Amino acid sequence: MALAVAKQDALAARIAGLSFVAGGWLGAARGAALERLGAMGLPGKRDEYWRYTDPASLKATVAPKASLFAADDEPPVFDGIDRVKLVFVDGVFDAAQSDDLALAGVEIERLADAGARDIHWAAGLYAVLEARGQVPVQRPLAALNSAFATDGLLIRVTGKAAKPVSLIYVHNSETSDAILHHCVKLEEGAELTILENGPAAARFNKVMEVDVAKGARFHHIRSQGRDHERRAVTHVFARLAEAAVFKSFTLTANGVLTRNEAVIELLGDDAVAHVAGAAVGDGQFHHDDTVFVTHAGLRCESRQVFKKVLKNGAVGVFQGKILVKQGAQKTDGYQISQSLLLDEDSQFLAKPELEIYADDVKCSHGSTSGAIDETALFYLRSRGVPMRAAQGLLVLAFLAEAIAEIEDEEIAEDIRARLEGWLARHDH
Amino acid sequence: MLEIKNLHVKLQEEDKQILKGVNLSIGPGEVHAIMGPNGSGKSTLSYVLSGRDGYEVTEGSAKLEGAELLDMEPEERAAAGLFLAFQYPVEIPGVGNMTFLRTAVNAQRKARGEEEMSAGEFLKVVREKAKTLKIDAEMLKRPVNVGFSGGEKKRNEILQMAMLEPRMCILDETDSGLDVDAMKLVSEGVNALRSEGRSFLVITHYQRLLDHIKPDVVHIMAAGRIIKTGGPELALEVEHNGYADLLAEGV
How far does chain B reach from its first CA to its final CA, in angstroms? Predict the structure, then answer.
């Protein structure tokens, strides 16, 4: 069906300023993505998938300005973790600030360098999972990313990485509009942890495609920090082969608008995928977790654990789906989304969905929103814990189930400490 | 230690008077017991003293070592030395028992201008005190009161009391839900804390707890007032004859 003229015009205006780089394997992938985008058009408020989150500022021709946020009173996230640091400034890789790309068992290349070649392993991955993820739900902003991303990393893991690869996003310009695309391929039995943190840009569109081969394990821990005016849309697309493991956790504080999508396919048997998020929002905050997990293999396990603490009119959104395909017997699917509303101005909008075409599966989902437990609060205060600290303890307790999804205890502790620091502040 | 004068309290939501002029004076190191039938206002008294929401003091005062408790926030009362062992200890999923205890101990120390306890020192003290109450390491690690049996919850209350070292302890029906062995264990824990500078107010329905925690003074409460005060023999009298005679006498 042809797009309405208005949608065509909006799309044309949006992409007019973006440079399309043709040529090589990457040019071909970009061309295909641009075609997909052309057929879909940009998302609108009337689209079912954008019912709770207005995409206007994410798709506007010019990115709204965002002031720089200096969190100079606290050390950066993951500061104490031994890792390979790779820095992007307003969406452009900064070699001078980054560590050497050499890491045993891991090949890391810049997308900008690899794209011109004729043959590359990433040709089988770049925009491939994104394209698969366009069915049954359209994700035009991801297609836009595939078509126009000029930077990002291509990471191939053949063994067990000795330390995490840490992507650090620096925001230096109030008007930066960054599009980054990463591809991560874990070969059979490989293991890698990716860390992500930092404000990135005034507007940030990021896609990460992760292909996890047989028996390989991928961990992803991300912190979206205190930059109040951030607008970000991120997609992670993952494909899991037999006995592969994929675990992703995101901590979010503040941000005018954040939409994090996770699209995961469990193709092989006995694969495991966990996606989790803990978000604290105060005031002008809109945070949307949109998750789509497809079970195709036998005996696969998936978990979605999302917790949000909202106050002063903050809005939290959760759209989570488990699709169990025909034949995906013995599936074990779990989904929970909960919000703690610290006042009556905040709201939580949840749309949990299960769609099951196999008869021998175990799937459960739950969604709740509630206020802080007054009895527990009094109990803590009666033991001498001041009001604010008692609230903080209960908020942390509420978020604990999501943080518990982080397997590495050192990283989990770092995230917990970060959160405690944020909660102790007035502004988060 | 604790001086309650003419305390009148009503429920905030309904216009219902619960305490109608309670007078009570507890000296340092003394153990007082309050007995009384259901609905006499015993638990309300403990909640009002500890600062729970939902009650309105319409008249009277309650002073702890000269300081007016009723003007303080619950956490300030705790720092001033008041402790309430809850009838129904609250379960707090996600908060570890150790974290809870350490936060409480250090918050009180901070409020009193004392130095906070180091992690090492705290661990040593808590292990020692837990051992005498037969609280194992596993229980200390679990979230506060989650999955605890009735007896474990009450022992956990006494552990908190031992760690916080309050000057005025209120035990609200600590014997409820306890079997004989658990009651003995809890009572031993309480008795170990008895000292010249620490007073107790033990609220109970039954005399049997007072076999283990021997009171100096026994009060009978009915319809929001203390209607009779005497020695330990008063508790025995209740045990034998019930409250009916006393109530008739009091009215």
Answer: 29
Residue keyed to tokens 């699709």:
A323
Task: Please report residues of A whose CB lies closer than 8 A to that of B90.
Answer: 375-376, 378-379
For chain A, the maximum distance between any two Cα atoms, rounded to a whole number of angstroms, is 70
Q: Which residue of B has its CA nearest to A400?
A: B94
Coil, strand or helix at B187: helix
As a dihedral over the C-alpha atoms of residue A305, residue A310, residue A313, residue A318, rounded to 10 degrees, the angle is 0
Q: What angle do CA A250, A252, A256 make, to 5 degrees?
A: 135
> Phi/psi at A210 (nearest 5 deg)?
-130, 120
Residue boundaries of the structural domains of chain B: 2-250
Strands B2-11 and B16-26: antiparallel
Taking the C-alpha atoms of A427, A412, B127 and A391 in order, what is their torsion angle to the nearest 10 degrees?
20
- Taking the Cβ of residue B72 and every Cβ of chain A, the question of whether any pair is shorter than 8 Å is answered with no
The two three-digit tokens of residue A219, written as one number: 């961990």
Name the band, by pLDDT with cuts 50, 70 and 90, for residue A427.
Answer: very low
Which tokens is A202 given? Answer: 């005034």
Residue A117 DSSP code:
S
- Residue B40 per-residue DSSP state: S
Residue whose tokens read 């007082």: B32
In this prediction, residue B68 carries a pLDDT of 96
pLDDT for the residue numbered A428: 44
HEC per residue, A222-244: EEECCCCCCEEEEEEEEEECCCC
Helix (H, G, I), strand (E, B) or coil at A17: coil
Q: Do A376 and B52 touch (CB under 8 A)?
A: no
Residue B105 main-chain phi, psi, to 5 deg: -60, -50
Partners of residue A419 in chain B, C-beta under 8 Å: none
Q: Give B161 to chain A, closest Cα distance, Å.
A: 9
CATH number of B2-250: 3.40.50.300
B125 Cβ contact partners less than 8 Å away, ≥ 6 residues apart:
B117, B163
C-alpha–C-alpha distance, residues B41 and B39, integer Å: 5
> Among all chains, which residue has been given the structure tokens 């040709």?
A123
Q: Write out pLDDT tens, residues A202-223.
A: 999 999 999 999 999 999 999 9
User: Would you call B118 exposed, middle or buried from its count of C-beta atoms within 10 A (0-12, 13-18, 19+)?
Assistant: exposed
With vertex at residue A96, the alpha carbon angle to CA A93 and CA A99, rounded to the nearest 5 degrees, is: 85
Does the pLDDT at position A201 exceed 50?
yes
What are the extents of the domains in chain A? 5-374
| pLDDT for B83 beyond 90 | yes
Terminal alpha carbon distance of chain A: 46
Q: Which amino acid is at B18?
A: I
| Two structure tokens written together for A74 | 């606290």
Q: Which residue of B has its CA nearest to A379?
A: B90
DSSP state of A160: B
pTM for the structure as a whole: 0.88
Percentage with pLDDT > 70 across chain A: 99
Q: How many residues does the structure list for chain A? A: 428
Which residues contact residue A22 at a Cβ distance below 8 angstroms, ignoring those fewer than 6 apart? A30, A31
